[in-house]
Amino acid sequence: MKLYHSPTSPYVRKVMVLIAEAGIAGVELIPVAGNPVDPGSMPVDQNPLGKIPALVTDDGQAIYDSRVICRYLDSTAGAGLYPPAPRLWQTLTLEATADGILDAAILMVYEARVRPEDRQFEAWTEGQWAKIARSLDTLERRWMDHLEGPLDMGQVAVACALGYLDFRHSARAWRAAHPDLAAWEAEFSERPAMTATQPVG
């Protein structure tokens, strides 16, 4: 299999953590780079949206979107990171929440990096952070029992999302208002699969 990736992409990190946790071997990593304005070397032939991660399976099929790739790899490896229903629906909802945090956080990055400074819209940026803040509040208030339960992909996704907030938005200091979530993240981030995929740069 071939995985198109960037080591700073939190969506790629989700896939890499699953690969490590599931003990999947033989995945070739192909580095790419780009952004919404310039796709650069993004795998547009494999994913017309020009996003990563994108996975090409052993039989040549292209699979994209981190949630789809994670479900595929989990299924083929029998890793069990997507548990049976009814917990499955909680796991998927938690993963969707984490990916929504990432969507908003990355849009904030693009607003600062890609849009000219005189055209940046502060209210729009703060609106993205408001989505993140509400999600963090919800994780702290409703989801700690699930996060502290058996390992699943919802936990991996949340940990990767929180790690990205540290990586790109550390000044927002999300931990201050979320002590339980912060304590959980501190412990989860010590897993070998998490330390091996920690972004740098």
TrEMBL record:
GO molecular function: transferase activity
Gene3D superfamilies associated with the record: 1.20.1050.10, Glutaredoxin
A GO cellular-component term linked to this record: cytoplasm
InterPro entries (alphabetical): Glutathione-S-Trfase_C_sf, Glutathione_S-Trfase_N, GST_Omega/HSP26, Thioredoxin-like_sf
Keywords: Transferase
Residues annotated as domain GST N-terminal: 1-81
One Pfam entry name: GST_C_2
Cross-referenced CDD domains: GST_C_6, GST_N_3
Source organism superkingdom: Bacteria
PANTHER family: GLUTATHIONE S-TRANSFERASE OMEGA (PTHR43968:SF6), PTHR43968
Name listed for the protein in its UniProt record: Glutathione S-transferase
Organism from which the protein derives: Fuscovulum blasticum DSM 2131
Taxonomic lineage from the root: Bacteria, Pseudomonadati, Pseudomonadota, Alphaproteobacteria, Rhodobacterales
